[in-house]
Amino acid sequence: MKTTPLSRRTFLRGAVGGTAVALALPTLEAMLGARGAEAASTGPIFGVFFWGGGLPWHDGHGAPQAGHPDLWTPSTTGKEYTPSELLTPLAPFQPSVVTGLTPHTEVPDLPPGQSDGHMRGFMVAMTGDRIRPEGFDHPSHTLTALRPTLDQHVAKHSAFYGPEVPRFRSLVLGASNARFHDYGHWNAISYNGPDDLNPPIMNPGQLYDLLFGVAADTAGLKRRALLLDAVMEDAKSLSARVGAADKQRIEAHLDHLNQVKNRLDFSGEACAPPGKPAPSEDLITKTDIMASLLASALACNMTRVFSFMLSSPATTHVFSNLGVPNDFHATVHEGAWEHTRAGILYQMQAFAAFLARLQAVVEPTGGTLLDRALVFGLSEYGEGYQHSVAEMPCVLAGGANGKIRRNVHVRDPGGNWSKAHVTMLRGIGLETPSFGWNGGQTSEAFGDILV
Amino acid sequence: MLGFSAAIAVFGASVTACVGVIGDADDGTGEAESLVLAAPALPRLTAEQYRNTLFDLFGPSMPKAPLEDDTKPFLFYNIGASSTTLSEFGVQQYEESADAITRYAFADPARRAALVGCEPAAPGDACVEGFLRRFGRRVLRRPLTSDELGRWVTVSQTLADPSAWEGLRLAVSGLLQSPFFLYRVEVGVADEASPGRRKLTGYEMATRLAFLLWNQAPDDALLDAAEKGELDEPEGVAVAAERLLDDPKARAAMQTFFRQYLDLGRIDGIQRDPAAYPYFTPTIADAMRREVELLVDDVVFESRGDARSIFSTRKTFVNADLAALYGVDAPGATPSTFVPVELPADGPRAGLLTLGAFLTMNAHETRTSPTARGKYVRERVLCLEVPAPPPGVDTTLDPPMGDPKTVREQMEAHRNNPACAACHQFMDPPGFLFEHFDSSGYYRTVFEGDLPIDSSGDLDGKPLANARELAAVLETEPRVGRCMVQQLYRHAQGRVETKGERLALEDLASRFESASFDFRTLLIELVTHDAFRHIGEEESP
Questions:
Q1: What InterPro entries has UniProt attached to this entry (chain A) (predicted)?
Q2: What is Dmax (Cα atoms) for chain B?
């Protein structure tokens, strides 16, 4: 049961107005109230699982290095399809998959380079739109999104949380630190909008502290929260003094301060924490650790939205454990198909380890976290040898509270990527008449998957 | 945002000719040229600037909590800092950092006494107010307004639990989270002499000077100079800049600039198979970056030579790893000690483009990349723009299978295919000049299998035999100096230059030339220039 605290802003505004009196502690505490423990939730969970490097190429991608088998597309369609070699690690979780999808967005001629799969495929799969053409700089690898990525679209959708926003609107996580370029946009898959990205938390210790690190001095936490009111007064005063574009940045900063303040209020009453994890640089072990912390956070309703970047777009992760000598971006570029197959299979095993953590948590309702969740698995293109955006991978794991049919393979050659978006968004209960922009819009969903 | 919109014209212009000069777009309107400045960019402090600034205030042993990674579109962190929005977690990290630093500063009675200089007798008393006024000026880089001082004194009173010290700690924590600290705000004052632009205030100039020349906020002396009006005219700005440039902080700041301009961040994390590249030790990548920093420091501050000579000088600085890679005698060099050496006059190396950093970061793990090396020469050294391959072009070379082929032979496809040749004829020929240097920067006389190495190529149609001959060309190449001016301008402004600033760039380039390309003189010319001391009118919302 929550108590309704007095408006803290009123409190501090009054103080700033010159009527301040030093308040005795009990009065202060009474005004602050106490935020209740996170309320139990049975609402759907939405997550993104991203891996870099696409799939091993085959003739369906249109790559000139012909003759390689398609290890991804299941040989049968419909319910209870036969899993392919690369989907076999995921089989215990009965994911639905759609194959054949490709971007339908138009690509402006200028500036050139926007058709590149690293950019076009990634941006369509994550946002349903193209990259922002203005300021696109291929040589310096500068690009940005036009709109929020799917995780943030859901996290900020007014109908998803309604009035009960949990401690985190979303958690943005990742595993591999390898980066293709020393530039932020290649090291984060989650955008709020143009030039506004959410860098993932990569360090299990840092994630643990964020979720479960509780300062012993809870009164101190409340003072820190109160202090942010004064900081917000400064931000508002600055916001009034800058131009339109910068005003947006400052308003975002202000909004974030408000979120952080709410978070400080929550921090005293965290859920029963799991053990503090030991670090690991093995990608599957690290994925398992991050997923176990995430599962704990989901189980006590700290959030219902997440994204997980196993490896970044154009990842330069070196799979030396698999005998792959070069970084993965160079490996696929140089046409080393066997090495590519090994690297993708390994990433599917990491995906399986991730889903296993969600399946392992049985909730009071009797279902698992994975039954409640919809986890969208994707990469930035179909394959990396030619950066082909044909035959892009699309995995829909989990049941979304029964709204998504599991274990179904839909084959839709040349199909519009955004049909998958419409399917998923409707699956988690968000009214979505259509999705996609700049030629990619559609109102169609996959009826065989959406209940 | 402005930087990006300015760049569109550049790309639009460059594609027709394949190579255009960055920032030199000509839209053909032929309008009369005058200096038209862009609106201010509102950069957020980079993580390095944040830490440098707080080290000065709290000492280098203060806690270093993690901050959000900076981004560097168009090469520069300052450009990322003025275009990228901070994430929610980034704001939380600022909160945690400020809390940790102030706990450190105030937990120890001796440390807090040294910081504050008096003992508060009661929350918000004269000691507290005096400190917040003095300290607040350093944090916000200007005097606090009476409203602001009132706000923070009030915070120190209302949150004074259990003591006045805790209230003061929280007020300081709040100042460190204030957007007026975290962002560099420029408003300026109306300048009657120049309609359409605003003149920066003394405090804003102090901030610009300190962040450019020290990569951190101004010290008390610089703020005092601002208060006295000494930064209102170019002469006073020059005096202040000379003082800053005499300080070791300026050396570190210039290394930071050159590291970005030369794109040295790409050397981080480079790996080579030790079996194939025995000289590529685990620590050599760091040494390669350090070598360039020492070279830059020598040219800019020690010898004050022609700044362009970084691309042609036979002087360099090596540790033991680099001495082995280059095969030079370097008495006194150890894995951690760098010594100056003169590369042999008849050797293959001269200038930055023959040193480990450039050669390694512009190569693949297992083979060289003449395209990447040539592209670097075009883009980083000459500031020419090479656009992306046109849509639908097969950008993949045949995999190295079957008969042994040199990289040059593989890249013949670039010349034979007209779609590729249009651009690759600009990139590959200068890149071939480095073929004697393998992926680790080691000098080789034959390829694997005793195939002879052909390092011939050209720059703009001028035939050259090897990298040494390119260095000789770059020694007097005018575009090298212009490129440095342009990159320094972007770094200093935190955005890509606009068309209206072309005059300023040309002006600075000619002053640079008149000063025999002395980089320190260029810095003084820049900070005293109208374009650095003014901002454009804010665009209407």
A1: DUF1552, TAT_signal
A2: 85
Q: Please state whether beta strands B339-342 and B189-190 pair in parallel, antiparallel, or not at all (unpaired).
A: unpaired
Beta bridge partners of A145: A131
* Structure ipTM: 0.86
One-letter amino acid for residue A126 of the chain: M
User: How far is Cα A259 from Cα A277, in angstroms, rounded to an integer?
Assistant: 27
Give me B368's structure tokens: 């060289």
Q: Is A173 on the interface with B (CB under 8 A)?
A: no
CA neighbor of B261 nearest in space, from B522, B531, B483: B483
Q: Are A384 and A332 in contact (CB under 8 A)?
A: yes
The percent of residues in chain A predicted with pLDDT above 90, rounded, is 65
Q: Quick: pLDDT tens for B55-74.
A: 999 999 999 999 999 988 88
Residues with Cβ within 8 Å of residue A89, at least 6 apart in sequence = A345, A348, A349, A351, A352
Shortest CA gap A404–chain B (Å): 31
* Tokens found for residue A26: 């009990």
- Pairwise CA distance, residues A153 & A146, whole Å: 12
Sorted by where each begins, the domain ranges of chain A are 1-40, 45-204+274-440, 214-272
- Answer CATH for A45-204+274-440 from 3.40.720, 1.10.40, 3.30.379, 3.30.530: 3.40.720
| B168: nearest CA partner in chain A | A227
Residues on chain A touching B48 (C-beta within 8 angstroms): none
- pLDDT score of B396: 52
- Does residue B121 have a pLDDT over 90? yes
Given CB atoms, is A252 within the 8 Å cutoff of chain B? yes
The token pair at B425 is: 């004829």
Count A/B contacts: CB-CB distance under 8 Å.
228
Q: Closest approach of chain A CAs to the CA of B255, in angstroms?
A: 17
